[in-house]
Amino acid sequence: MNSPSVKNRLMRQGFTLVELLVAMALVSILAVMVTVALNSAQQDARLARTRSLVQRIDEILQYKMEEYKTRKLPVQLPQSSTTVEMTVPPVEVSRVRMMMMRDLMRMEMPDRRSDLVNYVPSTPVAMGPMNIRAIVNRTDSAGAALGAIATSIAWTTPSKFANYIRRLPSDFDDWTAEHESSECLYLILSTTTLNGVSALDLISPANVTDLDDDNMPEIVDPWGNPISWVRWPAGSPSSVVTKAGEDEFDLLNSDWGYGPASGISPSFSLRPLVMSPGLDGELGVVTTQFPTTPYAQMMWPVSDTDGKPRPVSGSSYPYIDPFNRQVSEALPGAVISEDSIADNVLSYDL
């Protein structure tokens, strides 16, 4: 006959319900801890890869921007005739070159669709070189002043711009503000060569995809969000150089922002801003141009009553203004909200 102690041992060969529940709870807690740790590690790894990607793209864009400082331009100023002497002040020569340089950047380094095409549904029109005009002084053969006039400067379409237009999809209806900056970035990288190597080869294939199925790929971060960029982030506090005269592309202060009219700030140094939305997929920076007037269709001044300086009274001139000084809305590069920008990865912060 079994003793009571033997019976108890036989009855205790299994776990009680309470013990099973405690064990399951411990396993669940451990599983959650491991999952959280793995997820945190994955997010840290994605953040590190995103920083590396943003920095790599920023370096490529900075390299291209530096090239513009020594770029030769086909500036052909008007010639004098036997009856009229044409005089172009040095500051005006500098302004014409500055305007051509801005227009080249707009065409060769687009950050929005309107830099490439004037979009009308089903009938996009290529936004080629703008009609740059030089202000020249005239005198007759006797030396009497004939007054200043504005004359157009002819120049050709850059080959890279023509290449972009050929590569654009025929259907522009699917282009969206959310993806257009990243799609323009893809165009730039796919046509840029560094030391014989395509810039696109420096980007992992995992970071190139067509999110919106419009036959124009985007550059995306490890979370799958489009990488955006702003060529002229005039609204970013980090981009502003308050000291006048520090615009590398306007060494003679020829920008009309240096005019006598009140409320006009001079030009300043700008450098590209590259951005990833981060984990939440929400950008906290303005990327679109306000108002919707394309850079290539900007005029100076915008009206005859706005108080802006002008070289010849009563006239307006095609004038790309990266600083958007003739509008009052939020500028590209401006912070939308501190909450939405908190997890953004910005090239300015690297």
Automatic annotation (TrEMBL):
Matches recorded under InterPro entries: N_methyl_site (IPR012902), Pilin-like (IPR045584)
Keywords: Membrane, Transmembrane, Transmembrane helix
Top-level taxonomic group: Bacteria
Record has Iron-sulfur as a keyword: no
Keyword Transmembrane helix: yes
Positions of transmembrane segments: 20-41
Pfam families for the chain: N_methyl (PF07963)
Protein name (record): Type II secretion system protein G
Source organism: Rosistilla ulvae
Lineage, highest ranks first: Bacteria, Pseudomonadati, Planctomycetota, Planctomycetia, Pirellulales
